[in-house]
Amino acid sequence: MTKNNPLIQIKDLAVSVEGKEILKGVNLEVQEGQVVVLMGPNGSGKSTLSFALMGHPKYVITEGSIHYRGENIAKLTPTERSKKGIFLSFQYPSEIAGVTIANFLRTALNARRKEKLNPLEFRKILKEKMASLHFDEQFANRYLNEGFSGGEKKKAEMLQLAVLQPTLAILDETDSGTDVDALKIIGNTLNTLNKKTNMGILLITHYNRILQYVDVDKVYIMENGQIKRSGDIKLAHEIEKEGYVAK
Predict the structure, then answer these.
(1) Is 68 among the domain residues?
(2) pTM attached to this predicted model
């Protein structure tokens, strides 16, 4: 597994929302095959960074750069970034009534492929991925996130990851609203995809409870729109004991 090729490089990134500066010169890097954790208190700018990386038009880059595989992607649309292999999971996934998980995933996967999969080919892939996540096959016929528990929504996102297999996965508080069983499934899915596909993962979280199930390479701590500290998994353990007050 390669962990020395920069996948995404964020340099001196400043981002404003409705004229208010939220990110104030962020420097962060995720390499191919690397699991990077971004931690920080509420309001520190973590979610703002995820939306800016995905190209949400409300989040305006005022300074700095975002290079993905060496390409400056600051002017690309969210759709263009997605087709290049960037995936964002939301802290609060939306419900989409009338659209089944299966249809949603087939449409999303075919949008990334030159040769489209027919329904039978896709169903075979979906069945394999659902089995690996211990999902009941009937789950694929439910409308996306409609009536789902917090854990089911997050597991559905893991299914999206398993099917789409992006090059870079940005996961915004994937552990929010999940129980221990869901956390284990999420952790196992991330570890498996990371090792099998060399996927780079930026995992955004408040707490380190999910980190006991994930093989972490690097930890960044964000406070007040800036990266204040970085280190290995030991830094996350220190935060758990001491809080986010910088030394």
Answers:
(1) yes
(2) 0.89
pLDDT tens profile 33-57: 999 999 999 899 999 999 999 999 9
> Is 190 among the domain residues?
yes
Look at the chain and report how many structural domains it folds into.
1
Task: Dump pLDDT digits (tens) for 201-213.
Answer: 999 998 788 898 9
CA distance 162 to 31: 20
| CATH number for 207 | 3.40.50.300
Measured CA to CA, the distance from residue 222 to residue 213 in angstroms comes to 22
Measured in residues, the chain has a length of: 247
| Structural domain boundaries enclosing 66 | 6-88+151-242
Q: Is 97 helix (H, G, I), strand (E, B) or coil?
A: strand
DSSP state of 26: E
The tokens for 63 are 């300074």
